[in-house]
Predict the structure of Xylanolytic transcriptional activator regulatory domain-containing protein.
Amino acid sequence: MHQEVTTSCQAVAIARPSRAKTVVNVKSAAALWPSAVMSEVATTTEINRNGNPQSPSDLTRNQDEERSGATIANATCMYDNGGETDMIVQLQAAVLLGFWHSKNDDHTQPWYWTGIAINLCYIMGLHRDPDTGNFNPSVTDRRRSLWRRLWWSCFFRDRWLSLTLGRPLRISLNSCNTPLPSLTDLVCDLYDMPRAIANAYIPDDFTQLAEYWIVLMRLTKLLGDTLTLCYQPFGPSPTLQQVEALEAEFFRLGLPERCAEGQSRLATFSLYHLQLHYQASVITFYRPCMAKAPEGLPSSQLQAWQAEIRNKIDAAALQTNAILDNLVREKLLDFAEPMTPPLLVPAMHIHLLNCKAGDDLLRRLSLNKLDFCMLVMQEMQETYTCASVYRGIFLEAIRQLFPSYSVDAAETDVEAPGAPASPQRQDKSFMGTLLNDSFIDELMHESSLFNIWEYLPMMEGHWAEENA
C-alpha cells in the first residue's frame, strides 16, 4: 500500500539540489508519511532528531540535479503506471509530487499535481465533515484525523499557489465544512510508531511544530479570504466593514512572536517561516487599499486612512527584513523551502516603491532594505529557479531608478532617480529583454492595480527555457 507513497517520498526528498545533504529512507518515509504532510518539515534535508541539517553532500551540483530530475521522472512514471488503486495513497503521492520540483522541471508542476490532489479530495468527499448532523461511527478516529490533515494540506497549497502563480482558487470554503485539524489529529500517528524510528527521525519538539502548522492553516484561511475579497477582477468592491472585519481576524490570529526555550533549529526556522507567511499575507491584504479605497469610506477620511494603511504596509515590509536578518544570523537559510523566495516578494515590492521617495535619505534606506532581500535571493537562487527570476526582475526595476546600480552593494552609486545611465549599464540583460517598459512602469506605480504575481510565472517559464 505504501509503495507509491514511498517512491514519491524519495522523489520529494531529493528533488532539490540543496546545500544540505538529502536523505532517502524507505522505512522512515512510509512510517512518517501520515504526519509528513502536516508540515514542510517532511525530510527535505537530512535532519537529525535535534532538527539540524547534516553535512553537505559529496555529489557535485550537476550530479545532484541529474539525479533529482531522474527520480522525479521515475516517481511520476510510477504514479501513472504503478497500478495503485487506493485513492488515499494516490492523494498522498500527488501532494508530495506537487510540493517539490527540481530546477529542470516544468515550473507548472506544483500547480498540476496540487490540482490532481484536490480533485481526489473532492472525489473521496474529504471536503465534507463525515460527522455532519450526527457522529459517523463507521469512520475511525485515526482515519478521520488523516482525512483532515490531507484536506487542509491541499487547502494550504491551493491558497499559496494561487497567490504566487496568479491563478484562480480551486477550493471554495462555501462548499466545504471539514474542521481544521487539532493537535491530536497531527500527532496521533506517532503513538504507534516504533521507538527506534521515532528516536531517529522525530524532533523532540514535534508537538511545537504541529502547533505552528495549525496557526499556519488559520493564516492560510485568512489569505484565501483576502484573495476572494480583494483580488477578484470581476467581483464586487470590498466595503469598509468587510475590510475592517478581515483586518480584525488578522489581529486575532495569535501569531507566536518568540521561540520556545531550548527548541531545535528546525523549530526555530519553522517559527520564522510562519512569521514570513504572516507578513506576506498582511502586505497582500493591505496592498489593494492603496489603489482603491473600500466602499463606504467617507472622502474626508480617505487621505488619513490610506496614510495609516501605508504605515502598516511599511511596517510589515520592515518586519520581513528583520525576520530575514534572524535567519541569516542564526544560519538557518539551509532550511529554506520552495515557498521561501515568494514570501520575500511582497516586501521587496514595497521597498522598491519606497525607492521612488523624494527624500534622499529615505530613498537610500529603502534601497538598502531591498538590497538585503536581493542578497538573500542570491543565496537561494542556487537551489530555486524562482529566486533567480525574482531577483532578475527586481534588478531591472532597480536599474530603472538607479541606472548605475551595481549588484555589489559596495559599488552602488545611489543617485537621484532618472539620472543618465552609465555606459556599462546601457546594455540590456536577458531579463531586461523579457521585461517590457509597461511591466516596469506598472510594477513601480504606487496606485496601480497591477498584480505582480500574474506576470512572474511567465517570466519563470522563459527563464527556465533559456537555462534548461
